[in-house]
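Pipeline run #58 for the internal structure catalog. This entry was flagged by the ingest filter as a single-chain record with no existing model, so it goes straight to prediction. Upstream metadata was stripped on purpose; only the residue string is passed forward. Reviewer on rotation: M.T. Logging verbosity set to normal.
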Amino acid sequence: MAERRTYGSYNDGCAAAHALDLVGDRWAMVVVRELLLGPKRFVDLQNDVMGIGPTVLTRRLVDLVDRGVVQSRRSSTSSRSELYELTPWGCRLEEVNTALARWAVESSALPWDADMSPDTLILTMRAHARPCPELEEPVAVGLHLSDARRHPHPDPVSYVAVLSADGSSLTKTDIPQSTIATLTTDTRTLKTAVLGDADLTRHPDAAISGDPTAIDTLLAATRLDDPGPGRSLPGPG
């Protein structure tokens, strides 16, 4: 297969065009997206990026490493396990991913009913996160999120949301005991709530421990209330 020529080889000195040379190959930004919240093994990336084959994934990782976007290292828990993670420069692509998400949400062809990986859904919530002016003190909310695309559901991934009057943040981390509430659910159920008005306190696929009003606060801080004209929000399941 002939290697694709770069835009620079056509005497195009635009930095945006060069950015496409770096991460514009098919699957490249999707692989980057799945690394934005932390390192993953090759098999994890295969599971999270549905549709990509091992040969293409290998090629994309090699390209991204060569371009300085991704780096690899041995896992501290297994000498035979290799982890892929974004370089500090590669981490700055979250700004690009957020901008693309905010722009594409106005597309009439956006597949609202399609599922997401756990990290992708959390990144979507991060992209729309806003302050909670009604809170006098910051509160922490835990999330145990399993991938609805895979059956049976794999072990859930843990995240923590910190909500405050100054802003809201979501990170991928173990859930501390200081959280005021914890939500355990799958990506399809949470996406329905983030995109609409689903009541998770009554949903059969959602379990809440602690203060349920904290879950309502989390959804209020990250919900996309209006998908735009001519589009409807997906229903549950």
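catalog note: Residues 5 and 21 are 9 Å apart (CA to CA).
catalog note: The chain has two domains: 10-95, 111-222.
status: ready for reviewer M.T.
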